[in-house]
């Protein structure tokens, strides 16, 4: 005996409709070649460098002096040099606001002298922010027998750091101006900033002054001229249409 599976009429109709192709559903699935292009592929990478420079008067004066003595014996020459150095250090400490450094102590026998003699020498560096006071001190030390080998104006570390920050800001502005100009010329727009790097291109520029006579009667002169602090910046931008 054969058994038959009988479906209700409504269920049969639904199955028949589901089997038919659906034009509306087909229209909802776009063809692969109809998708919008990926705009990220159109980005152009632009790398530029810029510089910034600020000018400022130096705020630190360094005087390089030396004590030198010649005698028949090394002990006598050293004794005279040691006495001059002590006088210089005491005077610097009494003046206040002066940093002192002693260096370059040497004792040599001079066979070319007639008669031969021993020569002792030591270098002293005095530095301070008050140039007028330091120059007055240098003049008094010269009168006591010390020699002056150089006067150098420079920027103090704190002042140089502040000026470097200002120079870096100017360098970044320069990079941005160049990027805006390049983008406008290319007909593009600046998008993402990918990377940026800063650098200090300034080398300390000492300003040596003419050496005065060892026994100068007046304080030496050392006019302070402006110094430059320069920084660089490099940045990479993404440009878009």
What this model shows, in words?
This protein is α+β, with helices and mostly antiparallel strands and about 240 residues long. Among the domains are: about 40-55 and about 160-205 and about 230-240, Translation Initiation Factor IF3 (2-Layer Sandwich); about 60-155, Alpha-Beta Plaits (2-Layer Sandwich). It is about 35% helix and about 35% strand. The protein has 5 helices and 8 strands. The strands form 2 sheets. A 5-stranded antiparallel sheet has the order 3-4-2-5-7. Strands 1-8-6 form a 3-stranded antiparallel sheet. A hairpin with a 6-residue loop joins strand 3 and strand 4. The model is unreliable at about 1-20 and about 210-215 (pLDDT under 50). This is SIMPL domain-containing protein.
Could you provide a short overview of the structure?
With 241 residues, the protein is of the alpha+beta class.
Query: Helix segment count?
Result: 5
Tell me, rounded to a whole number, the average pLDDT. Answer: 84
Q: Extract low-pLDDT stretches.
A: 1-20, 210-215
Strand content: 35-45%
Helicity range? 25-40%
What's the end-to-end separation, in Å?
78 Å
CATH-defined architecture of the domain at 60-154: 2-Layer Sandwich
Shape: elongated
What is the CATH class of the domain at 60-154? Alpha Beta
Question: What is the CATH topology descriptor of the domain at 60-154?
Answer: Alpha-Beta Plaits
By secondary-structure content and strand pairing, the structural class works out as: alpha+beta
Strands of the widest sheet, in order across it, are 3-4-2-5-7
How large, in whole angstroms, is the Cα Rg? 40 Å
Order of helices and strands: HHEEHEEHEHEEE
The biggest beta sheet is recorded as:
5 strands, antiparallel
Number of strands: 8
């Amino acid at each position: 005996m054969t058994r038959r599976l009988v479906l209700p009429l409504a269920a049969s109709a639904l199955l028949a409709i589901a089997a038919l192709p659906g034009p509306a559903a087909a229209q909802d699935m776009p063809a692969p070649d109809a998708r919008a292009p990926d705009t990220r592929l159109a980005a152009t990478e632009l790398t530029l460098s810029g510089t910034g420079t600020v000018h400022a008067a130096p705020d630190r004066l360094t005087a390089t002096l030396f004590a030198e003595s010649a005698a028949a014996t090394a002990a006598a020459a050293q004794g005279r040099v040691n006495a001059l150095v002590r006088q210089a250090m005491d005077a610097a400490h009494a003046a206040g606001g002066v940093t002192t450094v002693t260096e370059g102590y040497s004792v040599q026998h001079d066979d070319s002298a007639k008669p031969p003699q021993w020569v002792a020498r030591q270098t002293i560096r005095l530095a301070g922010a008050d140039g007028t006071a330091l120059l007055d001190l240098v003049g008094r030390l010269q009168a006591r027998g010390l020699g002056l080998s150089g006067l150098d104006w420079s920027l103090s570390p704190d002042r140089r750091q502040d000026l470097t920050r200002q120079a870096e800001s100017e360098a970044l502005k320069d990079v941005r101006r160049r990027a805006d100009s390049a983008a406008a010329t290319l007909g593009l727009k600046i998008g993402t900033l990918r990377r940026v790097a800063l650098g200090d291109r300034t080398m300390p520029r000492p300003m040596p002054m003419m050496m005065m006579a060892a026994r100068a009667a007046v304080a030496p002169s050392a006019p302070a001229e402006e110094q430059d602090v320069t920084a660089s910046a490099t940045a990479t931008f993404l440009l878009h249409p």
